[in-house]
Amino acid sequence: MNAAAIAQLSEGGEQVISEATGIFGLTWLLIALPLLGAAVLLLGGRRTNGFGPLFATTLVGLAFLLGMVQFVQMVGEPAAGRSFVQSLFTWAPIGDFSVDVGFQLDPLSMAFVLLVTFVGGLVHVYSLGYMADDPDRRRFFGYLNLFVASMLLLVLASNYVLVYVGWEGVGLASYLLIGFWNAKAEYATAAKKAFVMNRVGDIGMSLAIMLMVTTFGTTAFSGVFSGVEEASSGVVLAIGLLLLLAATGKSAQLPLQAWLGDAMAGPTPVSALIHAATMVTAGVYLIVRSNPIFDLSDGARLAVVLVGVLTLLFGAFVGTAKDDIKKALAASTMSQIGYMILAAGLGPAGYAFAIFHLLTHGFFKAGLFLGAGSVMHGMDDEVNMRRYGGLRKAMPLTFITFFVGYLAIIGIPPFAGFFSKDKIIEAALADNVWLGAAAILGAGITAFYMSRVVFMTFFGERRWADDAHPHESPRSMTIPMVLLGIGSVVLGYVLYSGSRIVLWLEPVVGPEEEHELAIPVLAITAIIIAVTLVGVAVAYSMYLRKPVPVQAPLGTVLTRAARQDFYQDAFNESVFMRPGQYLTRFLVFFDNRVVDGFVNGSAALIGGGSARLRRWQTGFVRSYALSMLAGAVLVVGILVLVRL
Amino acid sequence: MNPENYLYLASILFVIGAVGVLVRRNAIVVFMCIELMLNASNLAFVAFARLNGNIDGQVVAFFVMVVAAAEVVIGLAVIVTIFRTRRSASVDDPNLLKL
Amino acid sequence: MIELLAATSPTSTGEAVAFWFLAPTAVVAAVMILLSRKAVHSALWMATTMIVLAVLFIMQGGIFLGVVQVVVYTGAVMMLFLFVLMLVGVDASDSFVETLRAQRVAGILLGAGFGVLLIAAVSRATFPEATGVGAANDAAGGHVEAIAEAIFTRYVFTFEVVSIVLITAAVGAMALTHRERLTPRRPQPELSVDRIRSAHPTPHPSPGVYAQHNAVDTPALLPDGTASEASVPDELRRQGTVRYTELEDARKQEDEDGEQG
Amino acid sequence: MRLELSVTDALAETPWWLSAIKALVIFGFLVVSTLVMIWAERRVVARMQQRVGPNRVGPFGLLQGLADGIKLALKEDIIPTAADKAIFILAPIISATTCFLAFAVIPFGPVVSVFGQETALQLTDFSVSVLYVLAVTSIGVYGLVLAGWSSGSTYPLLGGLRSSAQVISYEIAMGLSFVAVFLYSGSMSTSEIVSSQDRLWFAIILLPSFLIYVVSMVGETNRAPFDLPEAEGELVGGFHTEYSSLKFALFFLAEYINMFTVAALATTLFLGGWQAPWPLGGPIWGGANDGWWPVLWFVAKLWIFMFMFIWLRGTLPRMRYDQFMKFGWKVLIPLSLLWIAVVATVRAVSNEASIDRQDILIYGGVTLAILLVISIVWDYIAGRESEQVDDVAMPFDPFSGGHPVPPLPGQQAVTVAVSASSSDGDKEVLDA
């Protein structure tokens, strides 16, 4: 823990972690409810087809209600006493080392619980309409419940091993959901890709856990965070980098970002819930949760910042070139999470803002995705934005909610994104001018590509296919969108005013570090808004003033590169896959000739020997009986002799 | 007479049974010889019960009988099944046990 | 009474006499199991041994065990053996030619060695003064009660396990010997309907009708003087022991000659 | 006057010569009874079949059995060439000797004074007497199997297999029917079982056991309607097809003595043994159970069963073999097991929980009544369905066999296809 935090604690009293009692004793129920749903739906089979979807939705709703009650209760507690732990049972006692199944409910997890259950609940409701015609929707809801349970386990776990369980759980649920329509080979491939890339990140996590076990002898948060101060800086740096690797995998950051675009193969509610609002933020959670580790290692923090800023720009550039509405939004997600990672990498100055942006982003990006899903729903699953245009009138409600989300993401005051992004850029500027500049540039590009999405989709002339009949979506889909839209409008101000979010998270991440700025805050805000407006204006001139061609023009080298995600797949293939393949081939060769040669040689030796011995095996029962009797004679004889 | 004579008798019967298992080829006769061995051990158990003055030996002999009955049932069923397919009740014929 | 006799003393004269009569009987019968050519004879010798052993049990105070021995072993087990013997070939008498090299010699030598060892072991052992089971019986209030108490208290777990073994064996035997019916069983009404509809609803002629003999293996003669194959039991025809009359033999000979000519 | 000595003590103090005399008397009793039984059977069956029966030799033809026996013994003794000679001779001996052995434990009466010596009217008794009877019977089966096998002929072999399968199968049901008796008397000794029936016969309180025993005892003795091993229509003479002369006589004797054995066992286990029937025993005549009188009661009860054997033979046709075995394994044995479970439960409950037997009977009766009502309702419902099915499935076709036949009760004549020219009036006639 850093000096400021310690000072704060000495002034404001220790941060007390108490045993969970009362309503907090029901923390396990938060996970158990959706898990029950998953179990019933997935194990119950076809019998649950009828009530399954509604049942799953109800369970998540109940979890949200429970979270709300706990939240209200927690608000009533004094700021230092808002952390509760609950140990259910010892999972794996191994000598001195043991892993508990235990939960930690503190303001950070609370924020995630509310986000996950609320957005998750809305997505469930939305899916009731979106998946209404899918014959397999029971399985879908089962997976959704499984995901919610795993995500809650991830954010509520009180030790890294349990976090890892949740981590893998969300990975599995994500895999299952991306490949939900696995009858299509490419969707199944996308699922596999996501899974494999996540595995790379997971290796980082498991290595980090192993390192913790050897270094601290425990994986519990409390033990690790108190032990980290005595640990050598090299170990801390290693743990930090490994955790960052894990975070890049799950949060689709460079260099493990390639899966997110393909993951859009899954049903749109999945994209909204998993690949925008919750799962991809797990990396941010991990870094913020591990703040005592990153606080002690500047190197690790630097790496985090670099990853964040690079991804921020990368995602933004990719977003400008995508014609698939969901892929454009996916690129935007990548970029926005880049902001969060950047903020998290700034240390105590940015943790709270990372979470702040995460929460607001969860709302408006989920809203945007649900809007995109609504558009696709109305356009017969057409995803190419060049085939949209002028949908404003066909689906007014979708347009309004989408537009609110759009304003929020590009950071127009007083929408949610404005407050959160602004604070991150401020913090970045305070840390390093170039960082700030990059962040501001990112904001401009964001404004450009989001405007492009909105203009191409809702404005301009119609470019629909002849048989398209766009229509507004059913109420079960629009209501969640409206609710998320409201969140996108008000959440930013609600959390910002009076530094609510900062004070709320203070017990976990320590107080915000005051930073010196070269220019006044208002000027910065003005610059950001100006850059944003420039982005909008460029988009306006390119996509609203001029007609949008239905066939995508070839574009410049840069456009083509961005369209291909800057050749990341090709890069991965040539840098990782090919050498791996050659290595594998060599290993197979080695295995066949050298290892097998040795093994086969000894086997042949033994085989030859046993062929001689085999003659004893006549196959006649009586011969065996004879040898048994001989053995008995031997034994009895020895016994008699010994007694002599 | 010495009660140990029962034990000698049991030993002799056991050995006769064992030799029978080794030299006879008819599966059913082999089986009978196994029963003879079990019976001989039962005799030993009963003699021990008497020597030691408690009933446990007899109870064990009783259990041996029941298990022997179960074994006979299964054994004979196996013999019948083998006989159906191979038309032979010789223990030397099913020598597929070897490789 | 027998119980009193066995329970009281280690050895009485009566017991000695009985033993020296029964023990050689048992040994001879056991040896005869090995030496009998026919399996049925072996089974009978086996039954003899078992009955003798039952008497030996009773002599040693195990009257319940002795009676159970007769019921279970002689009555059920050996009967099962006889059954199977008759199922798998009644007339099979074993050839005594040994096929495995040195098996017989080795078996007998090893057996003898084992016997010598066992007898040596028994003779070296020191046994307590034989007290008989009388005291144990009296403690429980009777011999059957004593056995019942032991089985259902101290050995109740064994008892349960053994009963499971027995049930499993019964089910296993059924599973092993069960043969699935390939066609549904034809009920008697159907068979009788078929019979009535067939060309020959009446019974076949009895063997020996109008023939020179009235033995079962002599076919009946039809009005035209030919032999009716159907009158002889199928089993005899399969065995090929049907006895044709001289007349019929001559006719068959004629037919064959005619075909050759 | 009842003597003071208990049965066990009386038997223990019996001198050897008295035992020898008892054995001889039992032997004589059985042989004579067999002769009487043969005569009685022939006479009674004759009456049932509206005939006179043997009446030439001796008064009422009483000596007919003796005459037949002498003739049988003097016939030529044939041993088939294919037979296994030693066993062929051994088999009837086994049958004939074992059948006498079972009678050693049957109590003919209470303790009496003979030649100044107090002794029980039974040869011996021990704690597992009834099991001993079962053991002896199971050895007796050897006679049948070996006779069948050793004849070296097909019919006897099949007959022997059949009869041993039958005897073994029904021995299980028989043994199970004893269990309830053991539970109630608390002993397997015949004399104690008899004495425990001084108030109530087991035939009454253990009626299901009794009925099962009676059925299985007929099966056990290979008697009509269960005389399948010697079903002459299928197997000629069964296991004794090849036997003649004295050896056949031995089988004959064994069969009848076996009947006496099972009847005596039924008397002992279920009908109170030698004890006088109810009104005679206690209230009317105090001395009915003392001295030599019980022998009379015992013999009378024995002959009730013997008459039943004759009656069955005169009344019932032979069963089919598979139905018979199915009946034994699938009806009698499960029923026995169920009944044992019920008896054991009732015993345990009334012993342990001191619940009145009356209460048990009342509750059991009410449960049974409810089950009965349910089953009746069930049958009614199921029957209605099946009737409906029958109506549809079985239309009556008067011409199905080629000849016009009138409808049976429950069938209805339907219109048949008459030629096109026939008028409606014709059809109406047919319908009517």
What is the CATH H-level superfamily of the domain at 12-91 in chain C? NADH-ubiquinone/plastoquinone oxidoreductase chain 6, subunit NuoJ
The amount of helix of chain A comes to over 70%
What is the ordering of alpha helices and beta strands of chain C? HHHHHHHHHEEHH
Mean pLDDT of chain C: 79
Query: Main sheet of chain A?
Result: 3 strands, mixed
Measured by residues with Cβ under 8 Å of the partner chain's Cβ, the largest interface is:
B-C, 68 and 90 residues
Summarize the structure in words:
The complex is a heterotetramer of chains A (644), B (99), C (261) and D (432). By secondary structure, chain A is mainly alpha-helical. Helix content of chain A is 73%, strand content 4%. Chain A is built from 26 helices and three strands. Chain A has a three-stranded mixed sheet. In chain A, a hairpin with a 2-residue loop joins strand 2 (83-94) and strand 3 (97-105). The longest helix of chain A has 46 residues, at 568-613. With 99 residues, chain B is mainly α. Helices cover 78% and strands 0% of the residues of chain B. Helix content of chain D is 65%, strand content 3%. Chain D has helices at residues 7-12, 16-48, 64-74, 85-101, 129-150, 154-185, 190-195, 202-205, 207-220, 232-235, 245-270, 278-284, 293-315, 321-352, 357-393, 424-431; strands at 109-114, 117-121. A two-stranded antiparallel ribbon of chain D has the order 1-2. In chain D, helix 3 packs across helix 11 and helix 11 (245-270) crosses helix 13. Chain D starts with 6 loop residues before the first helix and ends with a helix. Chains in contact: A-B, A-C, B-C, C-D. At the B-C interface, helix 1, helix 2 and helix 3 of B face helix 2, helix 3, helix 4, helix 5 and helix 6 of C.
Summary keywords:
heterotetramer; A: 644 residues; mainly alpha; 3-stranded mixed beta sheet; 26 helices; 3 strands; disordered N terminus; B: 99 residues; 0% strand; elongated
Secondary-structure map:
The complex is a heterotetramer of chains A (644), B (99), C (261) and D (432).
Chain A: H1 3-12, E1 17-19, H2 27-44, H3 52-76, E2 83-94, E3 97-105, H4 107-130, H5 137-156, H6 160-178, H7 185-216, H8 221-227, H9 233-251, H10 259-262, H11 268-277, H12 282-289, H13 291-295, H14 298-321, H15 325-345, H16 351-378, H17 391-394, H18 396-410, H19 416-431, H20 433-458, H21 475-496, H22 500-509, H23 521-545, H24 557-563, H25 568-613, H26 621-643
Parallel strand pairs in A: 1-2
Antiparallel strand pairs in A: 2-3
Helix pairs in contact in A: 2-3, 2-5, 3-4, 3-5, 4-5, 4-11, 4-16, 4-21, 5-6, 6-7, 6-11, 7-9, 9-12, 9-14, 11-16, 12-15, 14-15, 14-20, 14-24, 15-16, 15-19, 15-20, 16-18, 16-19, 16-21, 16-22, 18-20, 18-21, 19-20, 19-21, 20-23
Chain B: H1 4-23, H2 27-52, H3 56-86
Chain D: H1 7-12, H2 16-48, H3 64-74, H4 85-101, E1 109-114, E2 117-121, H5 129-150, H6 154-185, H7 190-195, H8 202-205, H9 207-220, H10 232-235, H11 245-270, H12 278-284, H13 293-315, H14 321-352, H15 357-393, H16 424-431
Antiparallel strand pairs in D: 1-2
Helix pairs in contact in D: 2-11, 2-13, 3-11, 4-5, 4-11, 5-6, 6-9, 6-14, 9-11, 9-14, 11-13
